[in-house]
Design goal:
335 residues; flat; alpha+beta; 16-stranded antiparallel sheet; 8 helices; 16 strands; disordered C terminus
Length: 335
């Protein structure tokens, strides 16, 4: 019993000493919280807030139908729309024009509806209900040091460029794929995709422009425009390009269906084109006259036979009435 009492006294002494040390050592308890303490408290508060937001988001996603991700912005109530589409690229996808090569390290997403057509296999896109048919993603592009002929810059831009670098301005450039026209100009041909046809019957026609951006280039530096888009007609078959390009081949991928054919999914698709031409840049630099210096460095404009684009990924197509019933009426056609 005496040993137990002694152990209890020892533990009590330890706790008392620990409490004394904490009181002496803790800035919060010893007369206020210093700057380091305040920074730590702020960090802990922000972390708790982030965790709470993540928990809310996760809970919301659990309640959301899994197919809402694909068809949530399909304009199901728009007149003459009878289909929905969602496609996302994988990291093997890229766009190349002259010396501009953009690897899609982040998925480029196409979403919206499909108009009812007389030809059942050929569909024009209806814009997404939220107005974002192509989800903008800034992808890494060639840096300024790789892509600009400094000596070709006008004096004002050259001076600004030198000052920009001297001030530690980044030479990193991003490229964002944007739709160069109405969504209705995008055409999807499911029959051509399935049969892996050639250029006479493209599987997917897509007018685009490439937005190049950093602080030196400004906000309006583009390859292609709505007036002069880069029109890429992707095929799943074999290309027939001008030299020096050589033929390349796409592939249809693997098809699965759900809900007795109401929803079709294609995985492992590879659509290609290396026969298109690319225009020069425009609107680059604060004074909008850095175009020639960039074109010289990037070898733009670039004629047919010098450019290649490859889209790999997956896409889903669904009947719009089924989508509307599934989301609004609560039916589950997609499991």
């Amino acid at each position: 019993m005496r040993h137990v009492r002694m152990l209890g006294l020892c533990l009590a002494a330890v706790f008392a000493m620990t409490a004394t040390v904490l009181v002496v050592a803790s800035p919060a308890l010893a007369g206020g919280c210093n700057e380091e303490c305040k920074a730590q408290k702020k960090q802990e508060k922000e972390e708790a807030k982030r965790q709470k937001e993540n928990e809310k988001r996760d809970a919301k996603e659990e309640k959301t139908h899994p197919w809402q991700k694909f068809f949530g912005v399909c304009p199901t109530t728009r007149r003459h729309v009878n289909g929905c589409i969602y496609g996302a690229t994988t990291s093997e996808s890229y766009f190349q024009a002259g010396k501009v090569t953009v690897h899609y390290t982040k998925p480029v997403v196409l979403q919206g509806g499909l108009f009812r057509e007389e030809e059942p296999f050929i569909k024009h896109l209806a814009p997404a209900s939220n107005g974002v048919t192509i989800v903008p993603v800034a992808e890494p592009a060639p840096s300024l040091t790789e892509s600009i002929d400094v000596e070709a810059l006008p004096e004002k831009e050259k001076q600004r460029y030198e000052e920009y670098l001297a001030d530690g301005g980044s030479t990193t450039v991003t490229a964002t794929i944007e739709l160069a026209g109405p969504a209705e100009e995008i055409v999807v041909n499911s029959k051509a995709t399935l049969e892996e046809t050639g250029e006479s019957e493209p599987a997917f026609t897509f007018p685009v422009m490439i937005h190049l951006s950093n602080k030196f280039l400004g906000k309006n530096c583009y390859n292609g425009s709505t007036a002069e888009p880069i029109v890429v007609s992707f095929i799943s078959g074999e290309t027939n390009p001008e030299p020096p390009n050589v033929p390349i081949h796409g592939q249809y991928g693997t098809l699965t269906t759900h809900g007795e054919g109401a929803v079709a999914e294609v995985y492992g698709a590879r659509l290609v084109n290396n026969t298109y031409a690319a225009p020069g840049l425009q609107g680059c630099g604060i004074y909008n006259n850095a175009d020639a210096a960039l074109d010289a460095g990037l070898e733009l404009p670039s004629p047919s036979g010098h450019n290649t684009s490859v889209l790999t990924g997956a896409f889903q197509i669904a009947n719009s009435e089924i989508v509307e019933e599934g989301f609004i009426g609560g039916a589950h056609y997609y499991g």
